[in-house]
Amino acid sequence: MAKTRTSTLNLRIHPALKDAVREAAAREHRSVANMVEVLIRRHCDQSGITVYEKPDLSSRRRNG
After folding, report:
1. Domain limits for position 22
2. What's the total number of domains in the chain?
3. Could you tell me if residue 26 is inside a domain?
4. Is residue 58 part of a domain?
């Protein structure tokens, strides 16, 4: 199985905003971390910001 590489992001937000992101995550059956990632990606897409990601080379090794 491929290892997923992640980076930690610590931030302080208003408690009401934290409650709101928890609610949004629950409604979409996501974790809070995944919901924040989705929101950031959505914002980047709407703002024309490209998110560069390294390709998953492990699938190439299995298939090639």
Report:
1. 12-49
2. 1
3. yes
4. no
- The DSSP string of 10-53 is -----HHHHHHHHHHHHHTT--HHHHHHHHHHHHHHHHT-----
Cα separation, 25 vs 43, in Å, equals: 16
What Å distances lie between residue 64 and 37, 53, 58, 61, CA to CA?
31, 21, 10, 5
Is 6 domain-assigned?
A: no
User: Can you give the pLDDT of all 64 residues of the chain as single tens digits?
Assistant: 566 678 999 999 999 999 999 999 999 999 999 999 999 999 999 999 999 987 766 655 555 5
How far is Cα 52 from Cα 50, in angstroms, rounded to an integer? 6
